[in-house]
Fold these 3 entries.
Entry 1:
Amino acid sequence: MARFNKWLFRRTKGRRGGTFLGAPVLLLDHVGRRTGQARTNPLIYLDDAPNLVLVASKGGIDVNPAWFHNLMAMSTTEVELPGGVRRRVRPRVAEGEERAALWERVIVLYPPYADYAKRTERLIPVIVLEPA
C-alpha cells in the first residue's frame, strides 16, 4: 500500500494519494540507520502551521516504527506536501501539555489512532516537524 500511495502521490503531485481514509498524507524522506539507504514513507499529518505533526503509531504493538527511529537520528530532513511542495524540517518529540493538545487534534483528524493507543502499553510519540 505504501509503495503505491507514494508512486501515486508523486505522479499526481498529491492530487491523488494525498489522503488516507480521509486524512491528509505527506511523504517523509529519511535515511535508514542500518542500511544508509534513502527511504520515503507516506504518513498522515496535521498542519499546525508553521509546523507539521506526525504520530509514530504502528511499528508493532510495543515498538515504534523504523521511520521514527531513522527520523529522530537525523537533524533535518525533507517532506513533500500535496502540490509537490517540498519543505525542509527539523524533528522533535512533543511532550507534556503540548503532546496532549496535539494528540487530541490528531485523533479528531484520524480516529483509528485512538483505538490503536488503547491496544498498546507505550505512549505513542507525537512528532513536531519544525521548519529548518
Entry 2:
Amino acid sequence: MIPMNGPEHFNFDAFRDCLFTVIVNKSTPDEARKGSKRSSIRKKPTTSQTSFTDPEPSELADFAEYLAGGIFASLPDELQNLTHRAIQDDTTLSDKWSLPLTLSVLEEVTAYIPGEVNDSLTAYGLVEAPKSDVQSFITPVLSAYIAVVTTPPPKWIETRTTACEICDRDWVPLTYHHLIPKEVHAKVLKRGWHEEHRLNSVAWLCRACHSFVHRMASNEELAREWYTVDLICSREDVQKWAQWVSRVRWKKT
C-alpha cells in the first residue's frame, strides 16, 4: 500500500492523476466526448465483462486509487522516484526514461504489474483483447506521468500574480512570501522534507496577508505543513481572514 501523505509522495499523486485521466477518457463514450445526442447509448459489455455505466466521479476515483496503488508499487524504484534533477544528474536514467518510451522499457514495466490489476482492467473493459492490452493501456499513463515529474522547476520570479493569492485584492502592492522560509532551509534538506529545487518557491501576497501567514505558524511549521498556497488557504482561520481583509479598501488621500 502506498502512503499518500507528505511532499515525498508527489510522484504517486502524479501517477494516480494521470491514471485517472486515462480511465475517465476510456470510460466516457466517444459520442459523449463529441457532444452527440447519442451520448446516453453505451456499448453493452460482454457476459465476461463488467462496465462503468454513467460512472460517478467518486466511483472512478476509488477505482483509480486501487489501480494506482497496485501498479505504482510494481514500478522500478528509479521510475517511482524519477525527478527532473535525477535525469539531469544521470544520463543513463535520462536515456532510459526519455519519451517516447521504447518497446523494451514498456515490456519491462508491464511484466511486473500484478495479475489482479490486469484482471480488473479486463473486467471493466479498459483492456479488450485483441484490440488492446495492458501495455497499450499503461503507455499513455506512463508518458503523462514522466512528463509531469521531470518538468523543470519554474523560475519563481516569473510566477508573479496580479492579485494577492490569499485575499485576491489587486489594488495593493504585493510582496513575495517564501513558502519554505529561508531560516529553515538547512533543516528541511537534512530532514528530507522537500527537494532542493522547491526551497525558493514563493507566493505573492499583500503585506497584510504576508504578516498574517507568519503570525499563524512558526517557520518550521510553515515548511512542514503549510508549504503551498492551497494548503495555507485550506485553514479556516485563513479563510476568515481573507473574507475580512478583502473588504478593506484604502481611503483616497
Entry 3:
Amino acid sequence: MGDIRQSLLPRDVLSAAKELLYHLDIYICNLVQSGRQPPLVDSKTLELVEEFILHAPKDRNAPVRKMSALQELQLLEIMCSCFQEQSRDAVRQLIFSTLFNLQGNQADESRMMLLGKLVSMAVAVGRVPILECAATWFQRTHGVYCVRLAQVLVDDYCSMVPGSGPTLHNIHSMSPRFCCQFITAVTTLYDLSSEELTPPLELLQMIVLWIQEDPRLVLITFLNTPLSGNQPLSCLDVTPLGGLVRWCIKAPLAYRRNEKQVRTNGSSESETDAGPLFSALHLSVLQVFMLLPNILSEKGLYGHLALLQLDSVAALTSDLARLLEQTDEHTHTCADAHALSQLALDRLAQALQVAMASRALLCSREDLRAICSRLPHNNLLQLVLSGPVMYYNNIHTPPLAYSPHTAHSPIASHTTLPTLPTHTPLVSHPASHTQYHTQPFMTGVQFPFRPSH
C-alpha cells in the first residue's frame, strides 16, 4: 500500500482518511484471504495510518494536518460504517488492530483519543462489531490504556451528559464481551482510595443491574479465552471478581471517609444511597463464586487456576487495615463507625470463605492468617481463618433482589431457591452438623461453634 501515498497527499484530510480506509479494507481482505499465519500488516501501511488517519507528521518539518470537529465526526461515521459493512470478523479485527494497537511511539496518544471517540460513538449508535473489536483490544492491551478508555466512557455517559446512562446500560445486551471487559477496567480504575476514585452512583447502579440479570456476565472473558495459567501482570485481570470484591469490602469505610471530607459543600453521594447497592453487589459476587466449581472442573482448571489472586487479597487487607485504623482514630465523629467496620470485616470473611471453597482463591490457611494479621478481631473472620472451608452442593444462592436489612449478611436465612448443579463435596462432613441449618456458610466447621447473642 506504500505506493498510494502520493495520491493521498493532494487530498483534504477527510478525503485522504476515507480513501485510505477503503484501500486498507481491500489490503487486509487480501491478506486474510492469502491464509498467511499470522497475517502481518507491513510497516509502510502502519505509517500511512499514522500520517493520514492519526495525523502524526512523517517528519519534523512536515506541516501538521488537523481535522475540524465536523470532519472528525464525519470520519467517525465513516469508520462506523466501515466496520458495520465488513462481514468477516477476522478482517474487522485486523483493521481495528492496525488502527489502534499501540506501537510505543508519538502516534499512540492520537490512537487513544480517536479510539475513545469511536467506541463512545459505537455505544451511542449500537455498532456491535466495533464493541466486539474493542473487547479484543482490551484483552491485548496494557491495563493503563484500558483504564483510560473506560474513563472516557464513564465521563461521556455518567458525568458529562446527565441522563445518558441508559445508553451505556445497553452494552450488556449488545456485546457481553465488551461489557465484561468494561467492568474489569472500571473496577481497576476506581479503587476507592479517594473521592475521585470512587465509582459514580449511576455507574454502580448499572453494574449491579448487569450482574443481577446475568451473574455469568463477569466470567465471559474467562469462559471464552483459552487459559492455562496466570495472565500477564500488565493486562487486565481475566475477570473483574477481584475488583468487585475490593469495592464491596472497602465501600462502607471509604464512603464514610469521603462523606466526611466533602460534608461542608453537601455534594457527597451518601452511604445511605450507595449502601444497599454495594450490599446487592456483594451477594451477587458471592453467587458468582458459587458457580465456579463446576465451571473450573469443566475447563480442567479446578484447583489449578486462581481467579482471585493472593497478592490482590493481600493488597486489599492492607488497604482495609489502614481504613480501619483511620476509623478508630475518628470513632467519636461517627456513632456507627464500629458497625461499618464490622460490616467490612464480615464481607471480607464471607468473600474469603466462598472464594476458597470454590477454589477461586488458592492459598494455605497460614498464608491467609498472615495477610489478615493486621486486621482487628471479627467473629466471622476468626472462624474462616481457624476452620476448614469446604464447598457444599446444598448451599442455596442468595436472592438477587436486595433489602437494606438482609443484604449485608448472607449468613442470615433466605428463602430457599433452586440449588446449584450437584458437585461432589471435597470432604465428607458429619451429618450432625446439619443442625446448624441457619448457618449455611459455617457448615462443616470442625470445632464447637456457639453463635454470639
